[in-house]
């Protein structure tokens, strides 16, 4: 714990928060409750938020009990996972999730390899529960995938299951910037902001995107046209 606190303090403004993944694969034989007790203690000592990777097998730690540990400003990621006890029961968001949101816990998609169930996502969106932030959780196991796993496709999937386009885009740009304390610097087209731009277009063809509770969903996909980083055009790979 002391080493972690020292690393955070040494990192200064480059450190946003403390990440804790309490899945069985990450924890091994360690007690996830003890890991979170120490994580919260580190976060309190450093004044940082927590990025919380939910324990998806809830046989030893119910979801409601996990949510109680999180504080206002902490981020619950992989929010649409479909293993064991999810945020949806009987097609509706469970009370503990609404209560966590009311006290300021944030919910992030973290749509990686096997970490999101689009049936859960469709039910949540239909019940009026939109994720605070949309993220793709891209890592090296996604390299070479066809079709590619990226943020534009993640956004396209959410729109295909009912998330309003304006909300999906805002929660991929403006809202993450706010959560990271970078409003006005990134995630916006405004004078004085970083000139980091992604130009996207909708494909003309509808393709399979997700498996929802009522069958497969198809739709157009957002495709990158060009990328600008710090005001300079990035050439295609």
List keywords for this structure.
alpha/beta; TIM Barrel; globular; 237 residues; four-stranded parallel β-sheet; three-stranded antiparallel β-sheet
Describe the structure in your own words.
By secondary structure, the chain is α/β, with parallel strands linked by helices. It has a single domain (2-188), classed as Metal-dependent hydrolases (TIM Barrel). Helix content is 32%, strand content 19%. The chain has helices spanning 2-11, 24-27, 32-46, 63-69, 95-102, 118-126, 151-160, 165-170, 174-179, and strands at 18-21, 50-53, 75-77, 88-89, 92-93, 106-107, 197-202, 207-212, 215-219, 222-229, 232-234. It has a four-stranded parallel sheet, covered by helices on one side. The chain has a three-stranded antiparallel sheet with strand order 7-10-11, with helices on one face. Strand 8 and strand 9 form a beta hairpin. Helix 1 packs across helix 3. The protein is globular, with a radius of gyration of 19 Å. The mean pLDDT is 93.
Outline the secondary-structure elements.
Elements: H1 2-11, E1 18-21, H2 24-27, H3 32-46, E2 50-53, H4 63-69, E3 75-77, E4 88-89, E5 92-93, H5 95-102, E6 106-107, H6 118-126, H7 151-160, H8 165-170, H9 174-179, E7 197-202, E8 207-212, E9 215-219, E10 222-229, E11 232-234
Parallel strand pairs: 1-2, 2-3, 3-6
Antiparallel strand pairs: 4-5, 7-10, 8-9, 10-11
Helix pairs in contact: 1-3
């Amino acid at each position: 714990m002391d080493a972690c606190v020292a690393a955070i303090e040494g990192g200064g403004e480059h450190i946003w928060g403390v990440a804790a993944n309490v899945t069985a694969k990450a924890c091994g034989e360690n007690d996830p409750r003890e890991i979170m007790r120490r994580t919260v203690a580190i976060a309190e000592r450093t004044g940082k938020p927590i990025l919380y990777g939910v324990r998806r097998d809830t046989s030893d730690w119910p979801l409601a009990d996990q949510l109680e540990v999180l504080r206002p400003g902490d981020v619950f990621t992989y929010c649409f996972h479909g293993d064991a006890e999810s945020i949806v029961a009987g097609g509706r968001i469970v009370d503990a999730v609404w209560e966590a949101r009311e006290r300021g816990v944030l919910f992030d998609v973290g749509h990686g390899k096997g970490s999101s169930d689009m049936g859960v996502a469709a039910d949540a969106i239909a019940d009026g529960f939109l994720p605070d932030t949309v993220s793709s959780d891209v890592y090296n196991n996604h390299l070479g995938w066809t079709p590619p796993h990226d943020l534009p496709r993640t956004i396209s999937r959410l729109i295909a299951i009912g998330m309003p386009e304006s909300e999906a885009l805002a929660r991929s740009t403006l809202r993450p910037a706010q959560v990271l304390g970078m409003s006005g610097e990134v995630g916006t087209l405004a004078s004085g902001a970083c000139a980091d731009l992604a130009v996207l277009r909708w494909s003309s063809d509808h393709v399979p995107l997700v498996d929802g509770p009522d069958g497969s969903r198809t739709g157009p996909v957002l495709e990158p046209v060009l990328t600008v980083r710090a005001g300079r055009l990035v050439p295609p790979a």
